[in-house]
Specification:
The complex is a heterodimer.
Chain A lengths: L41 E2 L4 H4 L30 E10 L9 E5 L25 E5 L5 E7 L4 E3 L5 E3 L2 E7 L7 E7 L17 H5 L2 E4 L10 E4 L2 E3 L15
Parallel strand pairs in A: 2-11, 2-12, 9-10
Antiparallel strand pairs in A: 2-5, 3-4, 3-8, 6-7, 8-9, 10-11
Chain B lengths: L19 H5 L27 E6 L1 E2 L10 E5 L24 E5 L7 E6 L15 E7 L7 E6 L4 H6 L18 E6 L2 E5 L2 E2 L9 E2 L1
The chains are: A mainly beta, B mainly beta.
């Protein structure tokens, strides 16, 4: 036996707490009604197929990949409130997750997405594409610069509006950690009226998706900042050598 | 009272929404010049070892309608059953094989298509071989948390029969939902059709991994 359980990369991942995540069937979010499985999920102990995942290197990133104010711009900067979003990717034990690929996408300042299936009457910003990506550093940190997105109406109820949000897709070190979520902004009253948000049963879990205004990270006379930490599943440690798959 | 375990909670999932392509496959929907190419969209490199295959199909909702806005990701071992990953400690995987692919379904037909190689067998936790399989992860508007499933091969009947998941008796009636159908060839490359049913009589088995 070791003196202390070492941070370990052989054990399976902590089971997902599916009472913390939104369930598949959330009828107030109408599209979920026909797109939610009715059978129970089949629990499967992590095998190598789940404990492994693709590796992405910093070399794949372009210089402007994390700058949405400039990465689609041709005639000037994108229009809207300039913000920095930054934070860390951690696991459930609080350890940083370095080398995590984050992809993020969003509407422009008026709530309009650049997508051919989108027909909201708010104008497209010719200098705003709406996508970016980062890979976390050795301490699990990421950061990007963008325009604060606007609220957006959607055909669910007759008068439903999404709160301002940025979508995040995250790759940790294993396919078991694969996650897509959305970031919301501190103080937005629409968070608590949104059927997509309220599919999350626990208010503390919703709060985990609300980024805090971070005055200390702002650039004076230039850009406000929000801090958004992301937590991925942690791993069981192997405390006894003869139990290769963890405790 | 007891001491706190001081663990964090995983960030809760939210739907990928209808515009998932903006962030994941921007070139596919005409947002060009931000990235040189869409991540995961290219077919398997020609230099990769193994039998080339095509995996294609559609995703259906509980009314039988085809999803036209789903995004699928595929994760699999190389031809020798090794994963190109940090978590692979048994040896070095084929350096020309990425192991991971991403494909949006076609916006009109709903068809997805992966051009990859047939994976080798990978051991289960207890050392028994699992039958060759690929892992699929499905996200879309209306799906609150990504759905994990596996696709097995119809021409691996003996290996499938011995697979640790397939031997779980309570699943007998639904196991067929995990096995692709052989659907001819394209230029000599075997085509496997794997339809995914989110809900209903033909509902695919999804895993809590």
């Amino acid at each position: 036996m070791r003196n202390a359980p070492a941070p370990n990369h052989n054990g399976g991942f902590y089971q997902r707490d599916r009472a913390w995540h939104p369930p598949a069937f959330t009828p107030n979010y109408k599209t979920s009604v026909l797109r939610s499985p009715k059978h129970a999920l089949l629990s499967l102990n992590n095998t190598l197929s789940e404990m492994t995942g693709p590796v992405f290197g910093h070399a794949m990133l372009g210089e402007l990949d994390n700058d949405l104010i400039r990465n689609y711009a041709t005639t000037g900067d994108a229009i809207g409130p300039r913000i920095i979003v930054h934070g860390r990717v951690l696991d459930e034990d609080g350890r940083p997750v370095p080398g995590a690929l984050l992809e993020y996408w969003q509407a422009n300042a008026g709530g309009r997405y650049r997508h051919k299936k989108e027909s909201y009457l708010a104008a497209i910003d010719p200098n705003f594409g709406g996508c970016g990506r980062s890979i976390t550093d050795e301490e699990g940190r990421y950061w990007f610069r963008t325009i604060k997105p606007g609220a957006y109406p959607w055909p669910n109820g007759v008068n439903d509006w999404r709160p301002a949000h940025i979508h995040f897709s995250i790759f940790g070190h294993a396919f078991a950690q694969r996650l897509i979520t959305q970031m919301y902004f501190e103080g937005d009253p629409m968070i608590w009226q949104c059927p997509i948000v309220m599919g999350i049963p626990d208010k503390a879990a919703v709060a985990q998706l609300v980024a805090a205004l971070d005055r200390e990270a702002t650039i004076p006379m230039d850009t406000l900042a929000y801090k958004f930490d992301i937590v991925l599943r942690g791993r069981r440690s192997t405390m006894f050598e003869n139990r290769m798959e963890g405790n | 009272m007891v001491q706190s375990l001081s663990r964090l909670k995983e960030s809760p999932s939210q739907t990928a929404g209808p515009y998932v392509h903006i962030g994941t496959t921007p070139n596919f929907i005409g947002i060009n010049h931000v990235y040189a190419q869409d991540l995961g969209l290219a077919p398997c490199p020609a230099a990769a070892n193994g039998q080339r295959i095509i995996i294609t199909g559609q995703v259906f909702d509980g009314s039988g309608a085809v999803l036209r806005d789903a995004l699928l990701e595929l994760w699999q071992a190389d031809a020798d059953g090794l994963y190109p990953s940090r978590g692979e400690h048994r040896g070095a995987a084929d350096p020309n094989f990425p192991g991971w692919f991403r494909q949006p379904v076609d916006g009109v037909s709903g068809i997805y298509r992966f051009e990859t190689i047939k994976p080798g067998a990978v051991p289960f936790i207890d050392g028994r071989k699992m039958a060759p399989h690929v892992t699929l992860w499905i996200v879309a508007r209306g799906i609150n948390i990504g759905l994990h499933t596996r696709m097995y091969f119809p021409d691996e009947a003996a290996a499938n029969e011995a697979d640790p998941i397939f031997t779980r008796f309570e699943l007998r009636a639904r196991l067929a939902t995990l096995v692709a159908a052989r659907d001819g060839e394209e230029d000599g490359v075997p085509v496997y059709r794997f339809d995914i049913h989110l809900q209903g009589d033909k509902e695919t088995i999804f895993f809590d991994i």
